[in-house]
Amino acid sequence: MRSIDAVLDQVDANLAASVDKFVRFLAFPSVSSQLDGKEGIAACARWLRSELEGLGLEARIVRTSGHPVVMGTSRTANGNLRVLLYGHYDVQPAEPLDAWATPPFEPAFRDEDGLRRIYARGASDSKSQVWSFIEALRAWKETEGAIPVDVTVLLEGEEETGSPSLPAFVDAYRDELACDVAYISDSDMWSPTRPAITTRLKGLLHEKITIVAPNRDLHSGQFGNVAVNPLRVLTKVLASIHDEQGQVTIDGFYDGVMPLPKVLREQWAALSLDEALAGVSVTGGPDEAGYGTIESMWGRPAIDFNGIVGGNTGPGERSVLPLSASARLSFRLVGEQKPEHIRAIFRNFVESRLPPGCRVEFEGGGGNAAVSVNEKSPYLVATGRALDAEWPERTLIKGTGGTVPLVRLLTDRLGVDCIVTGFILPDDAIHGPNEHYDVERLRKGTRSWVRILSELGQEQSC
Amino acid sequence: MRSIDAVLDQVDANLAASVDKFVRFLAFPSVSSQLDGKEGIAACARWLRSELEGLGLEARIVRTSGHPVVMGTSRTANGNLRVLLYGHYDVQPAEPLDAWATPPFEPAFRDEDGLRRIYARGASDSKSQVWSFIEALRAWKETEGAIPVDVTVLLEGEEETGSPSLPAFVDAYRDELACDVAYISDSDMWSPTRPAITTRLKGLLHEKITIVAPNRDLHSGQFGNVAVNPLRVLTKVLASIHDEQGQVTIDGFYDGVMPLPKVLREQWAALSLDEALAGVSVTGGPDEAGYGTIESMWGRPAIDFNGIVGGNTGPGERSVLPLSASARLSFRLVGEQKPEHIRAIFRNFVESRLPPGCRVEFEGGGGNAAVSVNEKSPYLVATGRALDAEWPERTLIKGTGGTVPLVRLLTDRLGVDCIVTGFILPDDAIHGPNEHYDVERLRKGTRSWVRILSELGQEQSC
């Protein structure tokens, strides 16, 4: 057993230096979605490569069809457990710039609410997460001369644009990415005092439907009572998707939806709604009978309408029956719901409701099934132990209504469990102006990774 | 009795000169909705005033808060019947100009389908209509030295922008506009061989509704199953407005809707749908049980959806529950349906369907009730006789799904019957590129007015 206390002390002792470097990391304008972000991305990637080299890793920048991946690999040849650590170094655009109290790429410190906060784009999402595990590796290296496991660090440069190049990259580098367990560190805590591991991630598919009438735009005064109005057809179709109990009426939609394990259900039912909702009102919202609010958010499938448009959307009045009307929907899947099956039964459902003469155009492809990480995985249990030791409250095994396609990708292509954990908080203003993080969370996040690596080191020696 | 045959012959003899002047009338770019149309409007108004003076009328240009009205009045002091003749000299914009085979304000002749067609903006809507009654007045004047009735010619310059100044004008000039019967000449024939008088005009009101959720934009993955989605609320509300039989479900909506007189109902049921629909498909359209297609179009009230918008309307996918969603609706009224009552019960209907926490914003005001001209009015009967004499087929007493607020205005403020007739055809491409009319229709339209004036002259002598 290694002396974990010395490593944890080293994290604390090194904090000022760690924060200095973190500030340099934050100063790179590594905006992946903007053309002029390319230079910031490239400079940030070079800087990260040299940081990984400084940890004694074999480090390189791998070109993709989009922004580069930075990889760092330790090779002890000790037959160690190999752990993949994923993070992303690209950030969201910072606009509108005038909404920031200080410039987004000139990190600024403010003491607020008893915390020393750092304001910058990427301060929380996700440079703090990357920096926490890098500093944990450094602490092990500096204190013990070695990391307790072998690691493969994978730092992506286009997470904020939907990871378009990542699948091809993972396929091409499958051998080098082979590992025993993968960590995705880009997620949130339950509260400032309670860490979390996210084991239930919903699947996702998008569909756009466009109802097209057999006529051109018509005068609604003349033809409103007799010609098909795509707006009327569209609203009837959309309104028939959910019944009054909030249940989806599409035959077969719930195929493959499993009941939640009792232990999770009970844990979730005991959670405070205030934390889960973070100020969002659910008054008058859908309320699927028999399911609690948090179970609905994390464990039940959904069909959402995300956009609708047709006919006169201008400021004035116009008597028109438009040629067409369209809507965008997203489907959040759980359990074994299959995206292609869901897409097929949805399209059938729409087509069966079309009046004669109308046609429908569908737009949408691909999609991801849900991922559930086995809550009994020894790596997950070990991770929970490590987090429990660092934070005041017990680690929450939680779900998310969101979708992280990467988890599906690594689970499927590398054949390993993905453990999703991180230290982001809802108040960090990620994606918005004045994004921030705090020094204490950086310290405790780093210490958490020190503990996780220690636990995994023991795991392999079992 | 005056010698009508001589007057009709004069119309025919004078046709070439009439067409020459019509071409000059068409060349004025009197576009009311464009700032640079102002000059064309002003020049056109001056030209019309001099034409009316040429007929021996007291003519003048009356300024309004918008474009001017041109008025011409005959004063015989013979105690004649006074007939108001309404037309409009402004036109729709001609854009897109490159869709025109010849420039819209350089009238061009083409011999097609056995007709001599004139292509120009306004050729049909509505300069041909104005020119037809002006030439009829001229033919009477030149042949008999007098028009068989007293006339008040009222030529509007902003019909195509919704007649914003007309109500104030009518109020201000009510005494001078006093008459025994008013003709609105801006409407269509049933077919090239069958003239029509429109006696049933629907009322109209517009409403915009915006459903507003208690939250800001939310991530639909996180909150789709629990927070109100205004798109879902909006589609449910809109879908509940019509039942499966196409009937409006709003309680009280049909108050004041009278059954159609049997004679009209039978006449309309006998009409060819091909003419009524002009190529528009009604396959799969609403089909209110118990009512024929034409009765539905002309005689039944309607609620139409004219536009809808909310959430993501861009080209990409976005997982959003938007803050709000809105729709525009129009209501076509018949019989004694009252706009203010309809607005009130509609707003109630929407509010009663809102989930708690949501609110709705309404936008809309005013509106017009329907107008029915008494089909037994002696002036209407006389007009029918005149048209029957000129055209191969019997005059159709018809309705329209459209709304002509002017008819309501003159009916209410002047207290007279408004007879709506004209010689526009659906194929004239009004409001579109390559608008046209034909010389033969100009001739027969003028002759129709000669006959109407003759009939009215006899009417008063009864």
Q: Per the principal axes of the C-alpha atoms, what is the gross shape of chain A?
A: globular
Number of domains of chain A: 2
Q: Please, what is the CATH homologous superfamily of the largest domain in chain A?
A: Zn peptidases
Mean pLDDT rating of chain A: 94
Biggest interface and which pair forms it? A-B, 74 and 74 residues
In angstroms, what is the radius of gyration of chain A?
A: 25 Å
Low-pLDDT windows of residues of chain A: none
Biggest β-sheet strands, sense, barrel of chain A: 9 strands, mixed
N-to-C span of chain A: 11 Å
Strand content of chain A: 15-25%
Give the number of helices of chain A. 15
Can you count the beta strands of chain A?
A: 18
CATH class of the largest domain in chain A: Alpha Beta
Helix content of chain A: 25-40%
Question: What fold name goes in the CATH topology slot of the largest domain in chain A?
Answer: Aminopeptidase
Description:
The structure is a homodimer of 462-residue chains. Chain A is built from 15 helices and 18 strands. Chain A has helices at residues 4-13, 15-27, 38-54, 127-144, 166-172, 174-177, 220-223, 230-239, 262-269, 273-277, 293-299, 339-352, 378-390, 405-414, 439-461, and strands at 58-62, 69-73, 82-88, 108-112, 115-119, 150-156, 181-184, 196-201, 203-212, 218-219, 302-311, 320-321, 324-333, 359-363, 371-372, 396-400, 418-421, 436-438. In chain A, strands 1, 2, 3, 6, 7, 8, 15, 16 and 17 form a nine-stranded mixed sheet that branches. In chain A, strands 11-13-9-14 form a four-stranded antiparallel sheet. In chain A, strands 4-5-18 form a three-stranded antiparallel sheet. The longest helix of chain A has 23 residues, at 439-461. The termini of chain A are close together. At the A-B interface, β10, α7, α8, α11 and β11 of A face β10, α7, α8, α11 and β11 of B.
